[in-house]
Every structure is written in structure tokens, then in C-alpha cells.
Amino acid sequence: MTTLTPELVYANLTRLEQGSITESARYRQQALELLADPQVSLKWRQAIAERLNEANHLLALTNVGSEDSY
User: Fold this and answer.
1) Distance between alpha carbon 57 and the CA centroid of its chain, in Å?
2) Hey, how many other C-beta atoms are within 10 angstroms of the C-beta on 23?
3) Which residues contact 47 (CB under 8 A, 6 or more apart)?
4) How far apart are CA 14 and CA 27, in angstroms?
5) Where are the domains of the chain?
């Protein structure tokens, strides 16, 4: 498994819409893991939290089709 770095997680959050649903879920999980890690600097945790919050907001605005399930 690749070591999670703040830089990698931050970059992955820009690719949420480009990959599969599974990849997006994995990227979100990685972000949450880093947010919970007190060894990660506050600066990085804030940047990751902001980017994740923005992605979640955009997801909430997405219309759900008849084939989608939540």
C-alpha cells in the first residue's frame, strides 16, 4: 500500500469526478484518515478538509438519476 502523504491525498481530492465511484470513495476515506492523524500539520489538515468539504458540497448538488441509489 502506498504511504499516504498530505500532498497525495490533497491531489487525489481533485480527481474525485474523474474516476470510478469506488476510487472516489477510497480518496474520501484517505482524506478522513489524514484528518484524524494528529501527526499531520494543521495547515495540511485544514487544506484537505476544505477541499473535501467543497467536493462534498458539489456532490450534494448533483441530481440523482433513477439508476442511482443512496
Assistant:
1) 12
2) 13
3) 6, 10
4) 10
5) 6-55
